[in-house]
Amino acid sequence: MTMAIHMKKYVTNPSIFNSIIPIARQFFSTSCAVERVHKLFGSSIGVIQDKDLLKKASNGELLILYLIDNGSMDPDASLYNQMLKKCTEWKRLKEGKVVHEHFLRSRFRHYAVPNNTLINMYAKCESMGDARKVFDEMPERDMVSWTALITGYSQNEGAEEALGLFIEMLRFGFMPNQFTFGSVLKAAGSLESGGTGRELHGCCVKCGYEENVYVGSALVDMYARCGLMDEAKIVFDKLSCKNEVSWNGLIAGHARKGEGEIALKLFSEMKRGGFQPTHFTFSSVYAACASIGALEPGKWVHVHMIKSGLELIAFIGNTLLDMYAKSGSIDDARKVFDRLVKKDVVSWNSMLTAYAQHGLGKETVLCFEEMCRIGPEPNEVTFLCALTACSHAGLLDKGMHYFELMKKFKIEPNISHYVTIIDLLGRSGQLDRAEKFINEMPIEPTAAVWKALLGACRMHKNLELGVYAAERVFELDPYDSGPHILLANIYATAGRRSDAARVRKMMNESGVKKEPACSWVEIENAVHMFVANDDAHPQREEIRNMWEKITDKIKEIGYVPDTSHVLWFTDQQEREERLQYHSERLALAFALLNSPPGSPVRIKKNIRVCGDCHTAFKFASKVVDREIILRDTNRFHHFRNGSCSCGDYW
């Protein structure tokens, strides 16, 4: 883009034009001064190139402002405006402030257009205090002034200020335009304020903007961010003209709610409608696939992105990496990481999280140390990933070293870091040290801290400390069923079944409900879900027969049912039978019946896998000669040839 500025306008006569050359010699060599002046301003009519608007002299000043100050160029409101626009485009806050200061000394300082550009420049440079100051000092404001400041607040985490300013604008009698509505709807969505959003929707209707595609898309996105997907769909369906933004808002809303199947269906409809998915579309669909662990649909979407020719930029690459990791394919996740055009701190954190979730402690440590060596500076999330991996892999010394290393990077540990250290110490069997660590924490222990200690007590069968930790949890979070179940397990393992029954009774009386366990497996793009003792599946007979055959085979090579994981049945045989039809076992049997021989089996479970199922899957992976990948709420378990990637340290 070129901004033509005629010298007749800025240079009063040829003698002044000639006088620029001596000034230019101060900044350029004598031999090229004339050439540079003619190149910068042109020969006959004179043209200032767009790229030269912020050109600096050797003394660091902006050349155009220097020429104005020396009388070699007449100032003009449009010139200030163009310079400020260039500062906005290039995010040059420092230069923008210099132009602003010069503009305030000019006779144009009360002009609305440059002042509006100033508001926008400061907002885009994330300097909202300066933007507000310009707005407040304007003698006259127009619709653009109000919209620029509202938009600035909306885009810079100032949602409440944006909404307050919108109300103030209406009181002054200004009628909002489509851009104003777009910004205040974004603000309402970021606050997840459905009530405010509905009021704004009514205002859009009164002003005749309901069917405007720009405002309609903003309404869809607002309702989706508030979790009101029915309202979002109603607005979407009423739009006579849709665009990529409206589709993206609806798809992203379902992805955020974990409704992966709906998001994938909408993506297909979008493609059939002739709309081209954007980076934001693909990012949302990858997140949707990750939420349900849908590997094959995720691969299909990835193929579409490759065919579209979109570059694998950081933010979409990060969600693609996360999708592969959460769908159980850590190798594909690493391939995406290696192919990223530019790796930011989120990219590294995503890879670290993936390794940690898959129980690959050594790989996490290597990746973390590589990041410290060649990547961006680690943040609090980076350290949390590294500490989690050390906890899952039993790397006690390394984990404690990383916790101390946070001080070097001036990162203050938050409660999540402390919980992970408790987990690390507890898993390592150092329960006394974990309790001492809790007592010496500089912040008040939360329920999560005591839950971590309780889980460690369950693992190491420490009844006394486990009861103490459970009591602390019940005080802080009485309605979470998990700690109750853990305590009941501790009692049952210690042979105190009456105490276990008492905990169960306490749950019933308090209205605490245990989340029903379920597992699901994806076969040929269809998801099949199972619950314990499931008898509703069309293949129920074949599934049970298959698991009984596997059970017989794994018993032959050493599997012995651990009935301590069944709490409420006193008869040994009945407890063994209850174990055999846990949801993940039925899912495994179904997958073996309906997938190609030798292919990996990927199973997801909504709660932590029980110890006996973990043991059974190790033996099963050997007798069926398959890799079994099980994702529960804590991590991934990769079962191969009779062993698990967690090394039984989970």
TrEMBL record:
<dbReference type="GO" id="GO:0008270">
    <property type="term" value="F:zinc ion binding"/>
</dbReference>
<dbReference type="Pfam" id="PF14432">
    <property type="entry name" value="DYW_deaminase"/>
</dbReference>
<dbReference type="GO" id="GO:0005739">
    <property type="term" value="C:mitochondrion"/>
</dbReference>
<keyword id="KW-0809">Transit peptide</keyword>
<dbReference type="Pfam" id="PF20431">
    <property type="entry name" value="E_motif"/>
</dbReference>
<dbReference type="InterPro" id="IPR011990">
    <property type="entry name" value="TPR-like_helical_dom_sf"/>
</dbReference>
<dbReference type="Pfam" id="PF13041">
    <property type="entry name" value="PPR_2"/>
</dbReference>
<dbReference type="InterPro" id="IPR032867">
    <property type="entry name" value="DYW_dom"/>
</dbReference>
<dbReference type="Pfam" id="PF01535">
    <property type="entry name" value="PPR"/>
</dbReference>
<comment type="similarity">
    <text>Belongs to the PPR family. PCMP-H subfamily.</text>
</comment>
<keyword id="KW-0677">Repeat</keyword>
<feature type="repeat" description="PPR">
    <location>
        <begin position="243"/>
        <end position="277"/>
    </location>
</feature>
<dbReference type="GO" id="GO:0003723">
    <property type="term" value="F:RNA binding"/>
</dbReference>
<dbReference type="InterPro" id="IPR002885">
    <property type="entry name" value="PPR_rpt"/>
</dbReference>
<dbReference type="InterPro" id="IPR046848">
    <property type="entry name" value="E_motif"/>
</dbReference>
<feature type="repeat" description="PPR">
    <location>
        <begin position="344"/>
        <end position="378"/>
    </location>
</feature>
<dbReference type="GO" id="GO:0009451">
    <property type="term" value="P:RNA modification"/>
</dbReference>
<protein>
    <recommendedName>
        <fullName>DYW domain-containing protein</fullName>
    </recommendedName>
</protein>
<feature type="repeat" description="PPR">
    <location>
        <begin position="379"/>
        <end position="413"/>
    </location>
</feature>
<feature type="repeat" description="PPR">
    <location>
        <begin position="142"/>
        <end position="176"/>
    </location>
</feature>
<feature type="domain" description="DYW">
    <location>
        <begin position="558"/>
        <end position="650"/>
    </location>
</feature>
<dbReference type="InterPro" id="IPR046960">
    <property type="entry name" value="PPR_At4g14850-like_plant"/>
</dbReference>
<keyword id="KW-0496">Mitochondrion</keyword>
